[in-house]
Amino acid sequence: MYLLLIVAAFIAVFPLVWVISSSFKTSHELAQNPLQLFSSSPTLEHYRKVIQEIGFLTNLKNSLLIAGCSTVIAVVVSMLGAYGIVRFFPRVGRQLTKILIGTYMFPPILLAIPYTITMVKLGLMNSYIGLIIAYLSFSIPYAIWMLIGFFQTVPIGVEEAAAVDGASRFRVFWQISVPIILPGIVATAVYTFINTFNEFLYALLFITESDRMPVAVGLYSLQGSEVLDWGAMMAASVIVIVPSVVFFMIIQRHISGGLSEGSVK
Which residues span the membrane (predicted)? Predict the structure, then answer.
């Protein structure tokens, strides 16, 4: 069993290790022996080119801003929406969740033209706000669907006990229910952040200025018409991967712990 787990872990990690190691290879090594795992003469030339010449850090800043705002707004709105459905509309909750998840039946490409027409009429093309609104339109429904299941696990008796002690409805929500489902909120935030950080289609359609492009479009723009700079591509890919990994490492402890935090008077 351990041998199988080691093999599975190696298969899962090897592509990431290869990308990172390739970003430190020289252009000659990438052309002559791309399968070589480690470079005989590591270089930071590709990172210098991506950061200084191409300005990829600007794309990274744009993605962090867009994904961060989308995540915060989606999580806050979804928490309130899911809690309201579970506590105030329990009978229609099941049907409503089916409608919410039904929005994912349509592939993003079908909504590209209506979204583009709407953004043009609202004057939100080539703006962060327009892209964030587009992301919220498909992030919030799925986040609500996820959080409904978590709020349903909160014992109603705990909330009633807090209400008897004089706690308001909002205080019960914020100090009792939210800490209990904190792992679910974190999981929802992780999903929303990664989904918006890596989104490509709407970012390509709505953003045309290079200094406003997120990393997904910036990475795509590195592809030349005839020649592909693999070194720059690998270095940019590492820069794209790092924020998601760091974000997950920061909040991963909240996913596995704190299931019953806030339930003790």
Answer: 64-86, 98-117, 129-151, 172-194, 230-251
> 19-262: which CATH number, 3.40.50.2300, 1.10.3660.10, 3.30.420.130, 1.10.3720.10?
1.10.3720.10
Residues 95-114 pLDDT 10s:
777 777 776 677 778 888 88
Cβ neighbours of residue 235 closer than 8 Å, sequence gap 6 or more: 23, 46, 47, 49, 50
End-to-end CA distance of the chain: 44
C-alpha to C-alpha distance for 136 and 142, rounded to whole angstroms: 10
CB 248 within 8 A of CB 197: no
Is 262's pLDDT higher than 50? no
Helices and strands, counts by H and E, the chain: 14, 0
Q: ∠ at Cα 193 (86, 260), nearest 5°?
A: 45
Question: For the residues 226-252, what does the mean pLDDT come to?
Answer: 77
Checking if the pLDDT of 176 tops 90, the result is no
What are the CA-CA distances from residue 12 to residues 6, 126, 205, 235, 249 (Å)?
A: 10, 37, 32, 20, 18
Task: Please say whether the beta carbons of 212 and 126 come within 8 A.
Answer: yes
Closest CA to 58 of 189, 206, 217, 244: 217
How far, in whole angstroms, is CA 17 from its chain's centroid?
22
Domain residues of the chain, as ranges? 19-262
